[in-house]
Request: fold
Amino acid sequence: MKRYHIVKRDLLTPGRRIVFYLLAIAAALLLGALLLMMTGVNPLSYYFKMLTIGTVTDSGELSRLAYKQVENLIKVFVPLVLTSVALSVAFKMKFWNIGGEGQFLVGAVAAAFIPLKFGVIGNQALTLLLMAAAAMAAAAVWGGIVALLKVRFGTNETLMTLMFNYIALYFVALLGEEKAGWNVFLDPESQRPLFRSVWDFVTMPAITIGKFSLSWSLLFVLVLCILVYFYLKKTKHGYEISVVGDSIGTAKYAGMKVGRIIVRTMLLSSALIGLAGFFKLTSAGPLSTSLTDSVGWTGIVVAWLAKLDTVGIVITSLLISILRFGCSQASVTFGAVDSRFADLLQGVILFAVLAADFVIRFKIVKKEEA
Amino acid sequence: MAVDFAVELKNISKTFGSAAANKNISLSLKQGEILALLGENGSGKTTLMNILAGIYQPDSGSIYVNGEKAVITSPKDAKRLGIGMVHQHFKLVDVFSAADNVWLGRENRSYGFRERYKAEVSGKKGIGKFGAAASVIFHAAGFFVSERLLKKSRYREIEEISRSFGFEMDPKKKVYHMAVSEKQTLEIVKVLYYGAKVIILDEPTAVLTVQETEKLFGVLRQMRAEGHSIIIITHKLHEVMAVSDRVAVLRKGEYVGTVETASTNEQKLTELMVGHKITLNIERPFVEKKKPLLEIRGLTIENDEGACAIDDVSFYIRGGEILGVAGIAGCGQKELCEAIAGLRKIKSGEIVHKGENIVGLAPKKIIEKGIAMSFIPEDRLGMGLAPSLSITDNMLLKNYRDDNRFSPFVNRRRGRADARTIISELDIVTPSTETPVRLLSGGNVQKVLVGREIETGPNVIVTAYPVRGLDIHSSYAIYDILNRQKVSGVGILFVGEDLDVMLALCDKIMVLCHGRVMGIVHAAKTTKEELGLMMTGALNLVRSDEKRTGIAKDTNIKEQPS
Reply:
């Protein structure tokens, strides 16, 4: 005889929910620790290395290169947070944009094209501005096509954005192999096909604080996050996005032009992802098929972990960035553990948080006998 | 020895979160009786029956079937104990035939490995354990395959069985071709086929016409005569009086009591159900005739499949008038409402508002003209509300663009003020204005929708099924709202289901059958039977030789000289 069953429970207070999520992350780290022990690595020292992202030396002092590590962390964080926030805009509308990878690459290609084709236009700032505009426009077109097709012909956006990823990916691969006069993306000095860095022409300006240089990209992105927050929460557009996401029938009934809202929102989402591609390109060097560092996928995980909440996305992105960058730093010391351990942990954390969601919504009760 | 009670529920409690749906309910069903389970929305009727049918687990309490303690942890257990439930929303596979829907939930006979093995070992000497096992497995494979094959004979088998219960049914007919009453018959056949002795029906008459309801009651009485015990959930009192032997009443999750139907009346039952005295009369305030507000001429509309949904329909609504639209489910009501709101293209005809043709205008423009449409679909949330958004946000749905066209921001302060107004005016039960609408109970959800439509200050209200699934209390609140609007000069198109209500509330009633007007009659001068006959198409009061029905003498439309 079954004596236990699952019932829904009341909404928990935010404080208690956070406790559950922290427990979930702890459980994921614990599972990771087990795996580390199996490979003969001391999990405590590994996690210490990971969480301090290489700013602390083995002897326990602050590394002389600590500022460099923080700069590198920012380079990981900026594209991830912008992509995640951009994806959440589409997800709020229940438009499943899983084409972040493609939109990111298309944005980066368009941004690279400007200096590689025309050199420095006017001055550095103008060139950078044009690059950003090109990245946003190209990515918006890339994502906008899918939205148009959905609105016009009712195609499935999940499938379409996914396929568009591969088109973009293999287009970049083609650019990387085809040595020809038209191909401005390759280094003219090199005999072998090699992508030319935009650093030959432009660099992202930074504020120097002692040795540490704070990239402007971080400030831009944080401002963008604040703008998106207000866009979603306070504007008529944001309101329309949530109504369309909740019920298309209701949106039509209220006299909203649903097709236009879908296209407009997707243009915004993909333009922001293209901009993330621009930031990555100007901070992390030449174009390549692996330029995205999987932010198009990781961004989906981040957006869901944060329940599409903009503030939550900024915090989650920071944590995931520390995890990913920290693992690559730790792998320098611990040769036995590949830096892809970060992917593994990320997956386990996602599952643990989903499990925590279940515990937050349901409880198991014992049946009392009458 | 015969046991007195088919089912006894003892001290059943069930909570969802902190809300107690059932509090210590004890209830008994006698052998061979029809028990009506009566209660307002949210009084826990459906929850209690779902516990009996194995869909929910009670937090505490016990169930006795035929005097023996029973453990019901799944619908399968309930089926095995002979308990079957016909749900309010049918559980049928649309693309399957009638027979396959019945076949689908059929219990597979078990093979009985052990018995077979023993028989093999003892029956055939010298076969050995291994040989016996091999033989059993060989036979079992054949048995399992033949059990799971869809044989042609299933059609005949199921047709015969349904005939033996007194139903005529085409076993090959697909569910999506069936009328609502046919689907319900199929659900009942299904339950009977699985051998149910106790049958629970959850609001079976909500979707039926008067004649169909009478037929269903005939079937229930016959089933009772054959020894079945029946529980019927309803909140239509006259039906309770007509069909039941005893009435059990629930109020706010608690058991109030059981009374013999013969020794009670509608007034007493209402008092038991609501907890205090309530008048059961719907008012029909008299309002001076005004000019027609909305006139519809020769309207023809196609449905999603391209078939004719509304066929050459003409009618008009005056200010201060409620025009009822009666008809069996799916005879063009939805298409008509959508066309008036500008959500559906029309094929031909005119929709004229205050003398101005509004055909082809965008929904937004029609809203601005003061035509409010609220359609409560079967799932009650599909149209008109965004369920995950707060009451405040739902209040803004139609007017968020208005206050400052150039401001990019939504004015939530106004939405919140509107939300507070309707919460206090319509007694909406909610923790706050920021609560998502889907967390409210059905009655409150509908009040939010109807309240918002009225808050926009319309001059024409089109409302379809505004009291769908609501209890007496909430229904009367809604009738009251509509009457107040009528008195203030608003023209109301009321698409309804309950003929008693329409006869009491509406000034005139238009009856539709398969998209055609069967007649427009004065509510005070017609009867339920007449309406019922018109709904099924048996009576047509529209005669071609006369002046066309539904055209006002003092029309705003300038007649074309012909």
Q: What stands out?
A: DSSP finds 13 helices and four strands in chain A. Chain A has one domain: 63-321. The longest strand of chain A covers residues 4-8. Strands of chain A lie at 4-8, 206-209, 212-215, 362-366.
